[in-house]
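Changelog-linked ticket: uridine-5'-diphosphate-glucuronic acid example.
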Amino acid sequence: MIADVSKSSKIVVEKSTVPVKTAEAIEKILTHNSRGIKYQILSNPEFLAEGTAIQDLFKPERVLIGGRETPDGQKAIQALKDVYAQWVPEDRIISTNLWSAELSKLAANAFLAQRISSVNAMSALCEATGADVSQVSHAVGMDTRIGPKFLNASVGFGGSCFQKDILNLVYICECNGLPQVANYWKQVIKINDYQKNRFVNRLVSSMFNTVSGKKIAILGFAFKKDTGDTRETPAIDVCKGLLGDKACLSIYDPQVTEDQIQRDLSMNKFNWDHPIHLQPISPSSVKQVSVVWDAYEATMDAHGVCILTEWDEFKTLDYQRIFDNMQKPAFVFDGRNIVNVDKLREIGFIVYSMGKPLDPWLKDMPAVA
Ligand code: UGA
């Protein structure tokens, strides 16, 4: 399309996360259709995260621009640098060759996801030994070479990027005859799946080995707070796991619509990536699921509460009121480590919190089925 409409030389900037060497493919297509017009392709990967997008755009830690190492390539890089220099300090704008820029984006996401899988792997060991994962990650993160960010244990990472980008990296490694490297990165995803399974198994085993017919309140469905995005959210796997054991789910998320939740739970894995017109128009709703607009309604008469997204409002709920309206024994399974465990135990809840010393109730119960 660009080749069709171009009347003068163009700089084409690749902003989406793409398989490495996509710029080369774009370049080939454009040069073969160029009719004498010159094209320069730049890779300028996006590093902003959902929920903090505007902040990240205004104050990026770095802007990365990849281009050809020819004089024309360097000129194109400078032109894009001049755009960013309007609001980004020049020492934060770095340039590399095309492939480095494309690969850096995948590598950055893989490293971030790896931190979460590392701390989540530790959370399992903490539960087995009586250590507290928050204390461990605090101590580890004080080392400036490691740093404190992105070390919160959780029920697993989600979102449209991490898994896709790691799989992309794995694919590139395999294509380049590097199966050991591919397996290394695959393990980050495997630990993520393990963590979600572990959470479901903990829940089921502590509730007398079955949740069949029991009402479980799900607080939070989005893949992280401050977004209504549910792509690859760990909530999908946790809810499907519980539905597999015939639980009745009452789901509340401040931003995710009922329609979206029903679609996520009735579709097969990975289908979110299909264009919307290929998805079922009105997926048959999952019967054991109700979606409500209030945390108190969700937890009314429930046997257990699962916190799957770290929404701020879940930190300040009236847990005494929730406890009073629940079946007993009343369980809380905190997949984001946001509740005050001691306070909740004082109220009377049996509390499971990822990577924290276990509630006496949960000791000796198997975490992995
Ligand atoms: C991620 C990267 O952080 C961005 O830099 C990148 O630009 C973006 O992907 C992208 O490729 O477009 P995003 O997916 O929006 O951004 O969200 P993150 O804040 O990275 O969170 C990802 C997942 O990790 C969430 O499910 C979050 O809850 C989880 N997480 C994060 C943890 O479980 N523990 C943590 O300590 C941090």
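Closing comment: Example verified and attached. The domain at 2-88 is CATH 3.40.50.720 (Rossmann fold). The pocket of uridine-5'-diphosphate-glucuronic acid is lined by residues 17, 46-50, 109, 112, 116, 150-152, 154, 157-159, 161-162, 223-224 (CB under 6 Å).
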